[in-house]
Amino acid sequence: MQTCIVYSGFDEGAQIIDLMMLVVDVVKGVQTQTAECLLIGELTCPRMVVVLNKIDLLPANKRQSAIEKMTKRLHKTLEGTRFKECPVIAVAAKPGGPEAPDPEEPHGVPELIELLKKQTYLPQRDPAGDLLMAVDHCFSIRGQGTVMTGTILQGSLAINDTVEIPALKVTKKIKSVQMFRKPVSGAMQGDRVGVCVTQFDPKLLERGVVCTPGSLRTLYAAVISVRKIGYFKGPLATRAKFHITVGHETVMAKVMFFGLPPADASEPPSDTKPSSLRPCSLDSAFSFEREYFYQDEYVTGQGEAGPIPEPQQWALLEFERPVTCPSLCLVIGSKLDTDIHANACRLAFQGRLLQGFEDKGYAETALPRLRIYKTKHKEGQVERVTDEYSVIGRNLFKKETNLQLFLGLKVVLSTGETGVVEGGFGQSGKFKIRLQEGLFPETKQLLSSTSKKKGKGGTKSGPTNEEAPKTDSQPVAIHLHFKRYVFDPHKKMVQL
Q1: Cβ of 413: how many Cβ atoms within 10 Å?
Q2: pTM for the whole structure
Q3: How far lies 387's CA from each of 272, 420, 437, 460, 474, in Å?
Q4: Which of 122, 131, 140, 474 could be 381's S-S partner, Cβ–Cβ 3.0 to 4.6 Å?
Q5: 129, 207 in Cβ contact below 8 A?
Q6: Residue ranges of the alpha helices (H) in 261-345?
Q7: What is the mean pLDDT of each run of 10 residues along the chain (496 residues)?
Q8: What would the DSSP string read from start to end of 157-188?
Q9: Which helix (H) or strand (E) segment is 445 a member of?
């Protein structure tokens, strides 16, 4: 089977797709693109018929057994899908191929037609809601106007309705409507129509959508719910770029994954990768009012004891160019630049568009509303004691660090005392810590003995006490845990 993803509007089209036909080369079997089409079918269609094509390429004396073997393999493949036990039929649409000097009659095509008739049913269509029509051709008729032909994916239309062509930001009034070359007063979801408007250049629109004015939004970025597609190999990394299919467009976007905070937030983790062994609730919807945890990559449902339910996760998509799409539409993330001949699924994740950002300056106006944070851990050492309630620390901050951002944050000594960062000390990044309960006697003794050891290290030719290396002999560590919101323009540090 040789197909590719050429129609990117499968989400809206899913509302009127009632039956799909998966064509498989009987000789090659399931290939990468076969699996991709099957995955898209699961997302968009309730029924399927599998067609084994090119059976004329099989030796006549082994043809039937080969067909039966391939049919069993396909049924095995489909066991875990919504198309379990779907019908499989063998055909040769063009026996001998297109170059055959004396082509034979197609094999199995009449049987395929009968099978399709049996599988068809009268679908339920809904005329309610905003209009969304996929346009696949646009041409002018002298004396009439411009005709846009396509399929109504959602809602309905009628003569004298005003419709919008969102890609061009223009509105037009419907002059007339035809279905199968017959004039009609209107049409609804699922109908194939020709819509005539006036004063519109057909060269401006080859393919696209027509909709109720104002019903589609042009987005520069979006927040989506996200689920990894199981057949995709490899991690889904934050900051990676994916081909994002949304609405009727496919565009590159940078992705950032985030999830619910770890269940034991009182014990801050040491990195930005929450444990998949403690999945958070899957019931919470996205909200600007709650906090989310930054993830270096999508967290898969795989624990030490085997597969577990995946935690609910979201992603921020930042599009390389704006896209026009409806609210709550399906989103597919892919790696379409992967070698098509490689035995690897290119469809990486699916999701639902939950929140869109229409402002071109969304990074300054909208992203600060996203309360996504990273947890941070810094470790330094106590250099010396100034009094029973104060110590001087080092190696926690760099010389150029703005200490004002950390004033008042709580720190914990490795010996158990707690204190707060009170201010800087000198110009080398050292700082002063105020200990509310004072130092433990054991800590004072430990720091005192350490200082005596350091005091013996200086000679006339060697380093002085101030210059002596202290990292090897310093026993008391300082720990600082805090979080920082990724999109906070002030880069404020928040105590955990």
Answers
A1: 21
A2: 0.79
A3: 37, 15, 12, 30, 18
A4: 474
A5: no
A6: none
A7: 38 70 92 87 90 93 94 92 93 80 82 94 89 94 94 95 93 96 94 96 91 93 93 92 92 96 55 43 70 94 61 95 88 88 86 94 96 95 93 93 92 95 91 94 84 53 46 75 94 88
A8: EETT-EEEETTTTEEEE--EEEETTEEESEEE
A9: helix 441-455
